[in-house]
Specification:
Elements (H helix, E strand, L loop, with lengths): L2 H17 L17 H4 L15 H4 L11 E18 L21 E13 L2 E8 L5 E3 L12 E16 L4 E19 L7 E22 L2 E8 L2 E11 L4 H4 L1 E9 L2 E9 L4 E10 L6 E6 L12 E6 L5 E11 L4 E10 L17 E10 L5 E12 L2 E7 L3 E21 L1
Antiparallel strand pairs: 1-2, 1-20, 2-3, 3-5, 4-5, 5-6, 6-7, 7-8, 7-9, 8-11, 9-10, 10-13, 11-12, 12-15, 13-14, 15-16, 16-17, 17-18, 18-20, 19-20
């Protein structure tokens, strides 16, 4: 294999692999929108103004002052079941050959846990701690499928630790803030473009930091408004690129890329209509325009003569900022049972020009319902379900020297959440 072919193989494969940092995650872009079991049943409408349990330590730390005095612990498990099925619509070049087919279902079941804790420091100050996974999911297509040059397997995991403090300024106003320590791990693979190179596997990780702020205002006896802001986080991803083919030893190298996950801001309202009904609404803005391009460079020289510091590839995303709109309602059946309902519309940051199989994302509509059950005075069990109706996502991805993958993804997603909270 000549150095030119080596360079093309590495460039295509690493571009595809790092592009998987944007694999679809049951929310707009590569965010995981499911962060509490109580929120699932309301499609996460009113998240910044709700104060149901310790998960407010993530959504709006100022809301911790609305929880009962003492300590609260909340644990949740979410089962995410996305589906991404490709349909060819006239692909060309290397993508014209069907290979092993259309890739099967690129979605894969993911189990996402969350944990939250809040406690009193004094009558005006609360401490909170959130453990969750804000970004990432897994997608996997069949080996040898038509679009193997653009995607095979992508597995992204994040772990976020977020301590926070809330202060009650008055009986009607509270503020809060916290710091996020977030780790991202990626194990990504793609076909490198030749049998000699085989499949590329990229392993990369980094730990980065951000912050969040919150405000809660009781504007009327039965109405409160919450606002929250979460900063962007900049990752300096570093890892290794290895190849499974016979020329793998010559092609492997270190690799790095800068990735900035977006900031976001929410404003929510929560209104107690009467003893039976609670109403809520939410508007969330996410700054996905921070994701415009990804420049990938080598950190070590390769046996094929490619120098450290040279550019492997530049990936164009050209994403836009997005809006999410949600409304929800709770119905108090009796002292032990509350029914939850929710509806939301979530924009995608992607566009038809730069969308790839690594992120077959489109606008989505959430329909959700849930049940809250109180088995005791100190315990609360939540079960929630949401279905996401996702628009078909068109893909028109050209790989220089290989051809163009043209088609549509038939997408959908289901979410089941179970959560238990305990006060003591």
């Amino acid at each position: 294999m000549t150095p030119t072919v080596h360079k093309l193989s590495v460039s295509l494969a690493v571009a595809a692999a790092l592009g998987a940092s944007a694999s679809s995650a049951v929310a707009g872009g590569f965010a995981i929108g499911t962060q509490s079991g109580s929120g699932t049943g309301n499609a996460f409408a009113g998240g910044a103004a709700a104060a149901d349990d310790a998960s407010v330590a993530w959504y709006n730390p100022a809301a911790m002052t609305l929880l009962p005095s003492g300590k609260q612990v909340t644990g949740a498990l979410h089962v995410l079941e996305p589906s991404f099925k490709f349909q060819n619509r006239g692909s060309t070049g290397a993508f014209l050959a069907p290979g092993t087919g259309e890739g099967g279902d690129g979605g894969d079941t993911a189990f996402v846990p969350n944990g939250f804790f809040t406690m009193d420091i004094n009558p005006r100050v609360r401490f909170g701690l959130a453990f969750n996974a804000p970004f990432g999911l897994k997608t996997e297509y069949e080996n040898g499928w038509r679009g193997q040059l653009t995607a095979l397997k992508s597995e992204i995991k994040t772990i976020n630790v977020n301590p926070s403090i809330a202060y009650k300024i008055s009986d009607t106003v509270s503020i809060g803030g916290g710091i996020s320590v977030q780790k991202l791990d990626a194990e990504l693979s793609a076909f490198a473009g030749s049998a000699a190179a085989g499949n590329l596997t990229l392993n990369a990780d980094d730990v980065a930091y951000g912050f969040n702020l919150g405000l809660m205002v009781q504007v009327a006896p039965n109405t409160r408004i919450g606002a929250s802001y979460r900063s962007s986080i900049e990752y300096d991803l570093e890892g290794t690129a290895s190849f499974s083919g016979t020329s793998g030893a010559l092609l492997g190298s270190g690799a790095r890329a800068d990735l900035e996950v977006p900031d976001s801001a929410s404003i929510s309202v929560f209104h107690v209509l009467n003893p039976k009904w609670e109403l809520m609404g939410d508007i969330t803005w996410t700054g996905w325009s921070s994701v415009q391009r990804l420049v990938v460079t080598r950190t070590t020289a390769t046996g094929a003569g490619m120098a450290a510091g040279s550019t492997l590839t530049t990936l164009a995303f050209s994403w836009d900022d997005t809006w999410r709109f949600g409304v929800g309602a709770n119905y108090k059946w009796n002292e032990q049972v509350k029914l939850r309902f929710g509806l939301a519309f979530d924009e995608t940051p992607t566009n038809d020009a730069t969308r790839t199989p690594r992120l077959p994302d489109e606008d989505r509509t959430w329909v959700a319902f849930g049940v809250q059950y109180r088995p005791s005075k100190s315990g609360v069990l939540e079960v929630g379900y949401a279905h996401e109706f996702v628009r078909d996502a068109s893909v028109n991805t050209t790989v220089t020297g290989a051809g163009t993958l043209i088609g549509e993804f038939d997408n959908k997603a289901d979410i089941v959440s179970v959560q238990y909270s305990h006060s003591f």
